[in-house]
Design goal:
single chain; about 280 residues; mainly alpha; 13 helices; about 75% helix; about 0% strand; transmembrane; UppP; membrane
Length: about 280
């Protein structure tokens, strides 16, 4: 391990923190950046393990609300329904992700072309959905918004969002993007859709972290631990900043800026892959 590797790990950690909770695909960004930097992690575990920094960032931001839910859990049906909704939404990706883990890591994670195409297609979908949720000429919404509280989504809706999240097993699709789009199409407001995606990220990313660590426990080295620690710290700090401001940004500007960013990055990555391999 050298200074260059540590710098690359720090840069990738910053990118992870900046993109994890935005609908732009943090994994896609990490894989493309790592590909062009020539950064290689053992078993492609670095990209998954540094997500723990982003998980802890969102736990820190929502600590008061999460503590309130935990305290009310034994006596409050609304708190129990919220926790059940998040767990129900988590299950599809947990089951399918575990079943396809080898294919995802050994094939999809090793194919930058898949990432680029997914980024571009996901950007186009996000533009379409964002346009549906723009205010109409009379100032009202163009589509029916039935759910404005992320902590009160019906269980059936949570399960449907969970299946939408399974699309993000393809790198470049975006976990937050797929869950946000799913929630929007089922009548959630932009802010509620993004916030539910935040809550769902906690068990999903924690599960991916634990499973990947377990699967690759025999091939990780001390050098890997140092790189992961640097990436983790950078991801935590940057994710902490992003989570504090992104909901207000989405409420004001919608998802179009992220859609265009996806398209630009995907197109640039596609050009780079075709030219340089």
């Amino acid at each position: 391990m050298d200074i260059v590797s540590l710098f690359e790990a720090a840069l990738l950690g910053v990118v992870e923190g900046l993109t994890e909770f935005l609908p732009v695909s943090s994994t896609g960004h990490l894989l493309l950046l790592g590909h062009f930097l020539g950064f290689e992690s053992t078993g492609k575990t670095f990209e998954v393990l540094i997500q723990l920094g982003a998980i802890l960032a969102i736990v820190a931001v929502y600590a008061a609300r999460l503590t309130s839910v935990a305290v009310r859990l034994p006596s409050d049906p609304a708190a129990r329904r919220f926790v059940a909704g998040v767990l129900v939404a988590f299950l599809p990706a947990a089951v399918i992700g575990a079943a396809l883990h080898g294919f995802i890591k050994q094939v999809l994670f090793e194919t930058p072309l898949v990432v680029c195409v997914a980024l571009i297609l996901g950007g186009l979908v996000l533009l379409w959905v964002d346009e549906r949720h723009r205010p109409a000429a009379d100032g009202g919404p163009q589509c029916d918004i039935r759910h404005d509280d992320a902590m009160r989504f019906p269980l059936g809706m949570c399960l449907a969002i969970g299946f939408c999240q399974c699309l993000a097993l393809i790198p470049g699709v975006s976990r937050s993007g797929s869950t946000i789009v799913g929630a929007l199409l089922m009548g959630a407001s932009k802010r509620a859709a993004a916030e539910f995606s935040f809550f769902l990220a906690m068990p999903t990313m924690a599960g991916a972290f634990a499973y990947d660590l377990y699967k690759n426990r025999s091939i990780l080295s001390l050098d890997d631990a140092a790189l992961v620690a640097v990436g983790f710290a950078c991801a935590f700090v940057t994710a902490l900043i992003v989570v504090r401001f992104v909901l207000d940004f989405i409420s004001r500007h919608g998802f179009a800026p992220f859609a265009w960013w996806r398209i630009v990055v995907g197109a640039a990555g596609l050009a780079g892959v075709l030219v340089y391999g």
